[in-house]
Amino acid sequence: MDKKAIFDSVSNLEEQIGELYQQLGDLKTNLGEMLEENNRLNLENEHLRRRLSLTDEATPEPKAETEAEHGVMAPNRKEAMQQMIELGEGYDNLVQLYKEGFHVCNVHFGSPRGNDEDCLFCLSLLNKK
């Protein structure tokens, strides 16, 4: 093999490695997004299960006329919905900050993430149950 053929081979290999590196970066980004969405959905399911258990425990005996017929939300239902909204707000704020490019981990909290690179500390915090 002559030197030009070897050089062409190495150049071709370098291009392929660059493409693979780009694909790996895309996969990493997609994985991070999927992990965040999965965690958000798990938390939402947990909150909905709590909400369901609260309404099951607090459901009074059926009346002849319910509050829903009068267009007024039952007080216990209103409280349970308020609790459900409050439980997810802090987590949602952290996810939003992370998506905007800031660290949410205790190691680098509030500092900008360089080049939107993922932080394992932040991801582990966001993926906790």
TrEMBL record:
The protein's name in its UniProt record: Replication initiation control protein YabA
Database matches in InterPro entries: YabA
Annotated binding of Zn(2+), by residue: 103, 105, 119, 122
Bias type Basic and acidic residues, positions: 60-72
Organism of derivation: Listeria monocytogenes
Coiled-coil features, chain-numbered ranges: 10-51
Cofactor: Zn(2+)
Keywords: Coiled coil, Cytoplasm, DNA replication, DNA replication inhibitor, Metal-binding, Zinc
Keyword Cytoplasm: yes
